[in-house]
């Protein structure tokens, strides 16, 4: 029996309860589990992890499951095995052999813990620790919302430890005001926290290794001070990545703007008016995070797949004469793999 031809894939969200979460993801059209007291902090949109971090409340594998088309019900790791070159093109898998990015939405009703992910030096000495470089695109936020990105110049590990004991960590963090449309890149080793009242789309390398430094007075969650101090880059976020702010959208024009380009991924914000069409026949897979509007993917010989705000899609490469049609003015993040040129806009 022949395998079905590939097509744009959508996955069942994996929801994560968090003490800092809320219900804001309902604004994306999500039917969240539980009731108003169930605090959902994360929606894992595309995930392929052999094991998640026990410190994050996990410890188990997480593999996204397809919800549309002939491959509905299959896990992403199964599809990668069955369609390695057809799905991945020339993109290399993660070091563990899985999908090389983890895609999320985050809802910070409260401040996330001040934390750090393993630095390259730490990861090289600890095989169970994995690098996690990430980018946050601000979807929505309350007035006055901030993120914390890096430690102030001149702060030493000793002074930082003392600030933890004195409940004064915030005074040493670099606080950055944010607004919708901002995008921030945080390489591994950056001490950081997402501030309260912020909703973000997150693109990251596929690691769930997190070392908590400070939890804003919350109790009951483990801190990892020794590991964190060893990993933190003291000073502003150190990055060779290209990072920029997106210009204002012009509703009657199609536009693309590069937000982030790093060793692991590229992010473009794309805006298109009603009736816009563009090819989806790329040489490598792309990920579409639909921020607003609607449309459909068309692949000759297959059914059309409608896309809408709040959805995340994995578009395989080499879809022949496949195209995307925008039916109602739409904006999306288009995620590519590794350092790439900005996407082509017809």
From TrEMBL:
Keywords, sorted A to Z: Isomerase, Metal-binding, Zinc
One function term, GO molecular function aspect: zinc ion binding
| Cofactor(s) annotated in UniProt | Zn(2+)
Return the CDD domains for the record. cupin_PMI_type_I_N_bac (cd07010)
Keyword check for Iron-sulfur: no
Catalytic machinery residues: 212
InterPro entries in the record, alphabetically?
Carb_Metab_Reg_Kinase/Isom, Man6P_isomerase_Firm_short, PMI_typeI_cat, RmlC-like_jellyroll, RmlC_Cupin_sf
Q: What detail does the entry give on cofactor binding? A: Binds 1 zinc ion per subunit.
GO terms of biological process kind: carbohydrate metabolic process
Q: Where is each Phosphomannose isomerase type I catalytic domain found? A: 10-137
EC number per UniProt: 5.3.1.8
Q: Which residues bind Zn(2+)?
A: 117, 134, 192
Tell me one Pfam family matched here: PMI_typeI_cat
* Protein name in the entry: Putative mannose-6-phosphate isomerase GmuF
Native species of this protein? Mucisphaera calidilacus
User: What is the name of the gene encoding this protein?
Assistant: gmuF
